[in-house]
Design brief:
This protein has 137 residues and is α+β, with helices and mostly antiparallel strands. It contains three helices and six strands; from the N terminus they run βββαβααββ. Strand 2 and strand 3 form a beta hairpin. It is globular, with a radius of gyration of 17 Å.
């Protein structure tokens, strides 16, 4: 019996967002808050429009992500498609997707066993594909 493995690609227009640590309240030093609530809500909204079904990915998962950043206007045509080596760090870009889409596309981000990510110049956007990889990988 073969299992049916699902995959889907999502595209979120706009400059990619990197995950940031929780911040400490200026009035109560023991209180932490998420300073990215608006960015996360907007990202989830764009993803939900592309995933209207009620199912979530299950089992071990992989993600392939490409983060596109605008090049300077002077060099935009020359840089298009080239690797982008400036900030933000690629691990924080991936973490933003994984944390933001938890409970939306999958149960928990600990399901991810394979991560492939790139930063490139181009029209600013985040493209990512999530795949169920099955128990045998």
């Amino acid at each position: 019996m073969s299992e049916t493995l699902r995959s889907r690609t999502y595209i979120v227009q706009g400059t990619p967002v990197a995950w940031q640590r929780a911040r400490v309240s200026s009035t109560n030093k023991r209180r932490f808050y998420d300073g990215q609530i608006n960015e996360k809500d907007l990202f989830r909204l764009h993803v939900n429009k592309q995933h209207p079904e009620s199912w979530q990915f299950s089992g071990p998962l992989s993600i392939d992500a490409i983060f596109y950043f605008k090049g300077g206007a002077k060099n935009e045509a020359k840089n298009r498609g080239r690797l982008y080596t400036s900030r933000p760090d690629i691990d924080n870009l991936v973490k933003f997707i994984l944390d933001t889409c938890t409970k939306v596309l999958y149960y928990d981000d600990n399901q991810f066993c394979i991560i492939n990510a790139q930063k490139r110049y181009g029209l600013p956007r985040t493209e990512f594909t999530i795949r169920e990889i099955g128990v045998n990988g």
